[in-house]
Design brief:
Blueprint: E1 2-6, H1 21-44, E2 47-53, H2 64-75, E3 81-85, E4 105-107, E5 113-117, E6 121-125, H3 136-139, E7 147-153, H4 168-171, E8 178-182, E9 189-191, E10 197-200, E11 220-227, E12 230-237, E13 242-250, H5 256-267, E14 274-285, H6 292-299, E15 305-315, H7 318-322, H8 328-337, H9 343-357
Helix pairs in contact: 8-9
């Protein structure tokens, strides 16, 4: 039996900072299309169940159009069983009304429940509230002679601003083989006990630079395979648009063209489906003027989105400025140097002052 574990689709995503109106529309559509692509993958690979581990929608009020599309997608894949829990974004959102629930859709509400499938597989789950009830762990009950999968949308072994966490030691001995988690947008895993593991699938597609992945990596889902009573799983890269954060180290001696070369040597590995943030770090000399607009113009059409952030510190020749007689910079530096401030503070204040006064020399 093959099973897909995915989470955090965030359909009808509202927050897409940086992108213009047209690209926001494209990105929202791709979030939806990627789910449909996942279902195509499921059909082609004889997947029998899809675990939707919360935050399938980004809001508790998704559009009727999106709800209908998800409903019809489930209805049109009758050979696949869908197991669904809520997350912190989409609490109480269900694509179906209570009187039209199809046979291949299973909703786990607040209390733990489970469903037995063929090949001695049991799927259990609960849409836990912000605070995990004291009696929750005692309600988790699996047969030790079956392959048992539990769905939760919760941080594990810690709490955050949205949820109290669930703790692996409280689930030890519950005959869990695979704890399918949502909520954290990274692929993380760990042990429950000698028998079972917990696993975050991460989001199916990134929603912001907080979901950035390294060059060569992608977001995706886990494909589980149960055969002869044994469970195995593997990660399937599947995202279309990927957020990338690229840090470029700039040396003091680097001029504009050297910095450009460094950027080009890394960005050549990315393409038109990448959403890229380049962060320039380090120091450079004052005379090495950095033309961010020129860099942006050179690369902007290579990617779905590009932004360049300048965090380079300018290295000033304080001694040169302090010798200037008729300039604000010279007067400022002499005042700082003659003060009783610690030397480390003098350097910081001198740097900030020169940056603030850059281009403000006057002639008396």
């Amino acid at each position: 039996m093959k099973i897909i574990h995915c989470a955090d689709l965030h359909l009808d995503l509202k927050m897409l900072s940086g992108l213009d109106t047209e690209k926001r529309k494209v990105k929202r559509l791709q979030l939806l299309q990627n789910f449909f692509n996942l279902l195509d993958f499921a059909e082609k690979n004889n997947v029998e169940a899809v675990l939707l581990c919360g935050d399938i929608f980004d809001t508790q009020e998704p559009t009727k159009k999106t709800l209908n599309l998800i409903k019809n997608a489930i209805l049109n894949h009758k050979n696949i069983k869908f197991f669904y829990i809520w997350g912190n974004h989409d609490k109480n959102v269900v694509p179906f009304s209570s009187d039209e629930m199809p046979n291949n859709f299973y909703l786990f509400k607040e209390d733990f429940s489970s469903i037995d499938l063929e090949e001695k597989v049991t799927i259990g789950g609960a849409s836990l509230d912000r605070f995990v009830k004291d009696n929750f762990y005692s309600t988790v009950n699996f047969d030790k002679n079956r392959v048992n999968i539990l769905l939760l949308h919760q941080p594990i072994n810690a709490s955050d601003q949205y949820f109290n966490g669930v703790y692996a030691y409280n689930l030890a001995g519950k005959n869990i083989d695979y704890l399918a988690l949502g909520h954290i947008h990274q692929t993380l895993s760990g042990k429950i006990d000698e028998r079972g593991v917990w696993q975050f699938s991460g989001c199916l597609e990134g929603k912001s630079f907080n979901d950035a992945v390294p060059i060569g990596s992608k977001k995706g889902f886990f494909l589980l395979n149960v055969e002869n009573g044994k469970l195995g799983f593997q990660f399937v890269p599947f995202s279309h648009y990927d957020y990338r954060i690229i840090e470029i180290a700039v040396a003091v001696s680097d001029d504009y063209f050297k910095i450009l070369e460094k950027i080009e040597n890394i960005l050549k590995y990315l393409g038109e489906t990448d959403i890229v943030r380049v962060i320039l770090k380090g120091k450079h000399k004052e005379e090495n003027v950095l033309q961010l607009d020129l860099i942006y113009e050179k690369f902007k059409n290579n990617f779905f989105y590009l932004e360049i952030i300048d965090e380079i510190e300018t290295e000033f020749d304080f001694e040169k400025y302090s010798l200037e007689t008729f300039s604000l910079k010279g007067e400022f530096l002499r005042t700082v140097r003659d003060s009783n401030l610690p030397e480390s503070e003098k350097d910081k204040i001198s740097l900030m002052g020169i940056e603030a006064l850059k281009g403000e020399d006057i002639t008396l």
